[in-house]
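Collaboration report, partner site 2.

Our partner group contributed sequences for two proteins of shared interest, and the home lab folded both. The records are reproduced in the order in which they were received, starting with the first partner submission.
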Amino acid sequence: MAASRQTLEEERCRYQELFEFAPDGYLVTDMEGIILEANSAAANLFKVSRSWLIGKPLVVFVCREEHFSFRARLAKIKNGNVVQNQNWELDMLSAKRTAFPVSLTVSMVIPSMRGTAELRWLLRDITERRKMEEELQKADKLESIGVLAGGIAHDLNNFLMVILGNLTLMKSYTREGSKAALFLQNMEEAVSQTKNLTMQLLTFAKGGKPLTKAVSISQLIEENSAFALSGSKTRCAISFQEDLPPVEIDPGQITQVITNLLINADQAMPEGGTIEIHAKKLVIGENSTLPLQPGNYVALTIKDEGPGISSQILPKIFDPYFSTKEYGSGLGLTICYSIVKKHGGHISVQSIEKKGTSFTVYLPVSSVQTEDDADEDVLILGEGKVLLMEDEEDVQQTVHEMLTFLGYHVELAGDGAEAVRLYQEALVSDSPFDVVIADLTVRGGMGGKMAVSELIKVDPDVKAIVSSGYSSDALSDCKKYGFYDIIAKPYRLQELGQVLSRVMQGSKK
């Protein structure tokens, strides 16, 4: 008998320890929902002491909107038989009246000690799980936006290709210095700005990979700062270190980063102020605390005189969908962070409340010099036989006219299968093509990537140029897929002539 009592006592102590040290909240209530016992986790959950909980109705910790459903469930339990592990989720309140989501599991038991039915409640805070679910939903939405944005950008770049191609053709027939030439130049610049907008759309898309080249960061800042701050009360104070080396970047994507940071700085100073922009050379060593590979970088800093960001908020500033009044909302800074990271760079933020905030963007220095801007307007004529693979009829017609103007003989293919057939026929007839220009994506047909892999089987020395209005791995690393060079839509007559000249001379990108 004594042994039996000892065993019971040991079991009771074991139960008490499990009850006390359980990681989740555990409550015992009567059938009316009045709290009889509570463990430490439950007290912590509601931000009160255990003794304060005893005697309180559990419903007082339930959000007002959930009172009716909670009482209805409690009534069903009271009126029914033994209930085991009934589970549901609802929002509860701490003593500070802060709401948080909880998973509730309730069971009815009749303990031998008290002899009356009781309810035992397991309470689990599911705040983190809810956050994860919300982030997954946002990620799904973002993926959908990415697919939509990629499609829109692709179509828009095809439209711009027709406009820009015909504009540059018209300029070639117009007397330099005439009013008509001036009007056409203004139109061309407007199309170039629209092209930058499509690059922003492509950043949402999965394929928004950077197409890098050597670029002067000082020139990029000077070209875009006035545009980003047009109509604002702020002014820019720009200072660059002398002999600043070019950086290896995608100018469209980094323009988006710069524009976003400038607009954020402007919004932080609604009454006006000064935005300081600095750039300097920087060598990152093996022991650097920055998450960068050792090497040479340019550090670009954009600093405002706004109210600053609190130390609690600062670590979250690049989180998706996190926002502050001063620094915009949604995905702006997240996209900036993503773009810079894809470039092998880094973006950091420092802020002092009431004194302002500064963002520093670290970009890798290019191993080559920037191309002379004057060279971009050089029109290079040529001769040879070009196979143009393009499924959009308007684009096909425009590029055909551009190639003909440049001096090339052109044959057309609507998809990859037709391009492979025409190429094979030309080889057999001893009248081979000198160059193939292949659109990357073809609706309902073989695209450029697969077409070139088939062409290489026919002719390992095929010279193919990949063209697309959608930034992808084939554009960012064209040699990997067998292409000689790339030309991203929309492109000008001069760009087309220069790329063809490079390829005809056997120079790979």
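Second partner submission, folded after the first:
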Amino acid sequence: MIRSKTLISQLLTGLKDNIQRTGDPLGIKAEYWTEWARGLNLPRSGETIIITGRMYQMLPYIASTTSLLASTKGFLSRRILGDIARRGSSIAGEKAIMWRAKKEEEARSTRTLCGIAKALSAIGYKPAYLYEDEPYSGALLYDLSFLIPFLVAP
């Protein structure tokens, strides 16, 4: 039980460190979150703004991270796993997560977001996107019962 509490504490510290460093709990840099909009030439402001909250983009990584943690559970100690989680992407965590993310899931997320932008355009709206200025939705933090923001994004 004590080891589980230590691991959870290290995971939560990792989330906090990642958000303070990069603005999101996974510690992935802003370029990834905005990649889906490449080539759409969406303006940065307008009457209709697409807000993804990084949720569509994050799905492949959540699945990949869960799978990665499950596959390492048997041969890495909780201390090492906790240390990796705490340090997040600062030590190849991002690369490990990105490597394991399924390309078809990434492609589906991109197609969905592009489809939303194109559908809005088709019915006469001129969608805009905030790109790297779009804030993270906070859904993961909410799910972990962090109802009051305890972090400030960079």
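Feedback sent to the partner group on the second submission included the following. The mean pLDDT is 76. Residues 2-132 form one domain.
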